[in-house]
Design a protein that fits this description.
heterodimer; A: mainly alpha; B: 3 helical TM bundles of succinate and fumarate reductases; 76% helix; binds protoporphyrin IX containing FE
Amino acid sequence: MSQSYDRGLVEDFGRWREFSAGMWAWVFHKFTGWVLVGYLFTHIAVLSTAISAAGQSSEVIAANNDVYTTVIVTLESLLVVRILEVGLLAVAVFHILNGCRLLLVDLGVGLDSQDKSFYASLILTGAIVVASVPTFLAGVF
Amino acid sequence: MAERYSSFEKGGRRWLWQRITAGFLVVVLAFHFFLLHFVNHADEVTFAMSSARMESLAYYSLMVLFLITATFHGVNGVYNALENQGLTGTPKRVVKYTLIAASLVLVVQGIRTANAWAGLPTF
Ligand code: HEM
Ligand code: HEM
């Protein structure tokens, strides 16, 4: 079951030219994971404006003039933000699909098709992202 | 191609929790994207709408659980990665407590925000 294989030091990024599919999967998984935590901190910071909004009068809230609504609507009206959101979707979808692949690998399922399932994750991520672009950009122009 | 790489370590609980939280996150994160981009559009989010969702106990508890698992999974992931890079000794301890402090701030702030929508005290 657990054969060992000298993969060299993957942690040495200088070797990227010799990377195989599995090593790219590893690098992408790290990168996407770090982007997602970064986003989570930013996300909560932006959403926190709801704390101030909750203290505003009910007329202001009913008219959608509170701080939270204003901040979100302003952000969403910027093209950069929309493009970053498409990027976030790509990052999240890849991390989810590749993460499921890793869970299977850890359970010992499908070890012989690890590189195929990595390519499948990439292609599926691309397809989902392209299909979502219209929804993500709707109304910004 | 039957090599088996894994960050598994015998007796490691954090390794297991990283996978348990991952399994939960697959479902909730997909739901979250779907709800806020396809069912409701991100540019139409308002305080009143977020409040309406958060006033339901089921949604509120799902979001708080999402907050906690995502924080754990993300921060623990970063810590594991640094450990794999060979971080040890005092720098490792400093990183550990910094990450714990950052997570606490994030979770507390997230819950205050959730409470603001749900009409609960934000302490
Ligand atoms: C661009 C995509 C996203 C949009 C538009 C979005 C939008 C929102 C909104 C409007 C809320 C407030 C609750 C509600 O109105 O129902 C919320 C809550 C939340 N989101 Fe997102 N979100 C996105 C991506 C993400 C991602 C990738 C994560 C995880 C890393 C995440 C984690 C959370 C958490 C944990 C909460 C609960 C916050 C709390 O309880 O204080 N979101 N999101
Ligand atoms: C939605 C479903 C998700 C799945 C299936 C998933 C799966 C995984 C798995 C299996 C690992 C462990 C890799 C290893 O130890 O070899 C991992 C690492 C990680 N994940 Fe996730 N994850 C998900 C969501 C998230 C979210 C929402 C965040 C951010 C808040 C995140 C951030 C990270 C980070 C930072 C790492 C460590 C990356 C590294 O090794 O540098 N993940 N993920």
